[in-house]
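During the first year of the project, the team set up a workflow for recording each protein of interest as an amino acid sequence followed immediately by a discrete structure-token representation. This format lets reviewers and collaborators read both layers of information side by side without switching files. As required by the reporting guidelines, we include two representative entries from the current panel. The first entry is reproduced here exactly as it appears in our internal archive.
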Amino acid sequence: MKKLFGILVMIIMAGLLLTACTQTITEDMNGQTVNLKVGETVTIKLSGNPTTGYSWQLGDVDVTMLKQAGDPGYRPDTLLTGSGGTYTYKFTALTAGTTTLNFDYLRTWENKPPYKTFTITIEVQ
């Protein structure tokens, strides 16, 4: 019984440690600054609807500071055709410094300004 309890405590501690190493940013944080430590991951969640032709486009990334963790993902809010959802981007902090991530929500084939933008400043310590 003690062995099982010890294993359970270790699993819980590992889960807490992993949770503490990831921050989630949402659109209501537009224009804010987020602090990370080297090795931590940040997840950015932006709402959108690809059935309208709009998508989020990421601007230039300082690859010496942040490494994009895989391709961006999209998950619809419902299974209904035409429903919106959430785009997810993940980045891992590589080195100390400050950088800005800029996203534009637009139709790539139109020659118009973005419908909306999202900017977040990342400070890595």
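The second entry, processed by the same pipeline in the following quarter, appears below.
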Amino acid sequence: MKIILVPRIGFCFGVKRAVDMSIEALKNNPKPCQVLGPLVHNEFVIEKLKRKGVKFIGSLNEAKKGTIIIPAHGEDPKVLEKIKRMDYEIVNTTCPLVIKAQNLAKELKDKGYQVIIIGDKNHKEVKSINAAIKNEGIIVGDEKDASSLKIKKGKLGVVVQTTQNPERVEKILRKLKNKFGKIEFRNTLCPTVQNYQKEVKKLVPRVDLMIIVGSKTSANTNKLAEVAKFSKKPVYHIEDASQLKKNWFAGIEKVGIAGGTSTPDWLIKDVIKKLRSLPRRK
């Protein structure tokens, strides 16, 4: 069985930056170093950071005097202001591209636009973008949301969750334009996420089966699986090598492997190692 890997695996810039800043905080900042929520969307990365000494808390009520680390997906500006007023050191690992999306949303709002955010309404990044405009944005998750949207006449401005599928975004934008006419669009999609999706799209026709490695809570990993499934070939989204099943590979000659931007390269290497150890089945 031949294993074909996408050209790029491992962390994107934003995730690597968040992990590196957290480890650096352990060396230089007052303890405990506490992340307000999940730092990134990968449970194995979080477990590894916990073993190094990073603490994870669900709210400020759980925080002890020391350092607060803001996750890569961003935070409500009101929460940030509250932390600043309290006796904590702050390490803000918010991805620069998320900050860009927040700033562009604010810019549109300040110019009098009704801001629409294309993204997953329950995702922390989308919540942080909306919080940056005092939760006055309208979140649109799919074409159905766009079709059913009711807005009074006025200027419409659009930003996007950084990890969205560009094709899905384009379809939603088309719906919005058909319904409301002119809209002001700010492309806040992450180039790295787009490249990962393009690489999966190129690889799928060359293989018999596709494995996507990453957390089920990771928006960009879920989008990779969506992209791969358009091929109608078998696609399995797994979180680590232990979830591989031998029967998936009966009669399979070529297996493609890709991972999300928050999937560490060592997890993907474990998957490859496990695949190579599987007995050949026909």
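For the second entry, the following points were noted during internal review. The longest strand covers residues 254-259. The two ends are 11 Å apart (CA to CA). Both points are flagged for discussion at the upcoming steering committee meeting.
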